[in-house]
């Protein structure tokens, strides 16, 4: 018999009786989805049915439940795993997932980050210090513009040249034309300046084109790929992480995932969504909105994400948290203090004030971070 | 120059000035994602940059903004369209999308429901009256069990035999073995009893297997497919809707989508998520948690969903709302009054009390609904 995976939730309930009943309800909802007296005896009742392991009181009206599930219920695959973790129960008010422990059996069945912190550092040749990743934008400009900006970023000392998550199939710069042009520019500038900057195009296209687009990016010599699991599904992240032939590092972007964390009583804790689940899906770098930027994440929430990305107790190898927004040369020292060295700092739109001097702006950021 | 698509949001702001600034911020965030003074003049500024069309006061501290976007920004594809509608802005507190108007150009580029209400009625031979769809479960049982239950459902008068969204790749009933067995049982019972019940297996598998699994379901003579866009992405729904060779009706299931509607100030309005967006992605039937079931949707929220599914003013042809949970022979008359005839009523786990008499239970529901 295999070990079970465990999901910890914070639930609202008036008293111990209601908390226990809610926990039993969740255990049923996420597996057999039938009334308790209809559950067939034997294998379904003994193994498949979710099991309430413990219910404890956290405070007035707030309880914590740990529910365990059979790896069999998830069938060895990340999408169905997340369906058991939080499919229908995501629709319940006052229920937030605060931890996921895949256990040995499920952990072995799920993908793992292929590169992690050590692998990304090796690929871009940055042994120490924070990594910096300027972002190519805005949408609506031609491939030559992005190629030129990308070369400037490499020259200035970027570790990763990331495409904005909004660059997709715009007619001014279709995916393949753009990826080919930027990859070539990055490779040439790497050769010229003796650098190893990695170019991460933003995955886009129709569902049926994703496989070919990934292959195209690989053959064009992209150094990794940016994926929005909120729109493409975590199964797409897992697909890339598992594909040994492709062997592309994955950076996940939080677009469309906001509602999972914004309301304190629903969804997932920040660290669970932007740390734990990203590792379970096989991401190497997890982008999230930085404190002090245009979004409202607190310093504590950002720290929770960074911790979940990097804890040695997590699934697979530690991965890189990547705070986006609100980064500047002036804030570099603070950011280094907050996140330490093992982080990818996204550099946003203010760099683009003078596109032809972006190399200098990136170099200033590099210096500020190293001096910090 | 093409017409723009329009996104209506409800935003929190202290006064008119803050509301206008927030709206401008969203228009930028969702497109160029750079400070206003860095936006390149010409095409990007004139076309690509989101445009605030109007900001009106709804009540104390609550405003409505209508923002328009160039179809070019979405590149003619549902995933990037949703990214422009709500990618990064999904991470902002106090911002809820309440309406989406794709406009002519974007509307023509997006998929459309292939079957809609009329098509589904034609396929299952039910000209009038509500449609009923018992659900095959629980996970953990073998294919022969599901085949036997499915045959009973057909005999009892089911229009659609739907698989539970939790049936995936469990080792007791792997996707292909199960789909083949159930499809055969449904076809045989249809032939025997002169019915046209449609079998909707639940799409599952790794991302790279989805195309083959869809093809397998089609060849096995499935009558449609159930998809969870919250886990597989709306691009997967669009992929099926567009595939003329496959030509499979799509029923979408709300698993993992809960947080998008649960908090009143974030995410989407119920009708927008479970009606408008489903049609834009090409779904024919949209499942949502019924009022009075295990989830907390109100009657007004359910009515909003049904209206968005069926309004003739919507994208493509009207589709079938499918309330799940809380259905019983006793409630049939109420449900018919509430939803009218053009709905698919899911029949839940209580039917499974006596699996070998499920035909009688389904027939009772059919009678109750027709008498209602």
Contiguous runs where pLDDT drops below 50 for at least 5 residues of chain A: none
Percent in strands of chain A: 15-25%
Annotation field: number of helices of chain A = 16
Q: Class of the largest domain in chain A, according to the CATH hierarchy? A: Alpha Beta
The largest inter-chain interface, given as chain pair and residues per side, is: A-B, 88 and 88 residues
CATH H-level superfamily of the largest domain in chain A: Ribulose bisphosphate carboxylase, large subunit, C-terminal domain
Count of domain modules of chain A: 2
Q: Report the average pLDDT across residues of chain A.
A: 96
Strand order of the largest sheet of chain A: 2-3-1-4
Task: Label this structure with key terms.
42% helix, 12 strands, alpha/beta, 4-stranded antiparallel beta sheet, 2 domains, TIM Barrel, homodimer
Helices and strands, with pairings:
The structure is a homodimer of 372-residue chains.
Chain A: E1 5-12, H1 16-29, H2 43-48, E2 51-59, E3 62-69, H3 71-74, H4 78-86, E4 95-101, H5 103-109, H6 116-124, E5 131-136, H7 143-156, E6 160-163, H8 175-193, E7 198-200, H9 210-219, E8 225-227, H10 229-232, H11 234-242, E9 250-252, H12 259-262, H13 270-281, E10 285-289, H14 299-310, E11 320-324, H15 332-339, E12 344-347, H16 358-371
Parallel strand pairs in A: 5-6, 5-12, 6-7, 8-9, 9-10, 10-11
Antiparallel strand pairs in A: 1-3, 1-4, 2-3
Helix pairs in contact in A: 7-8, 7-16, 13-14, 15-16
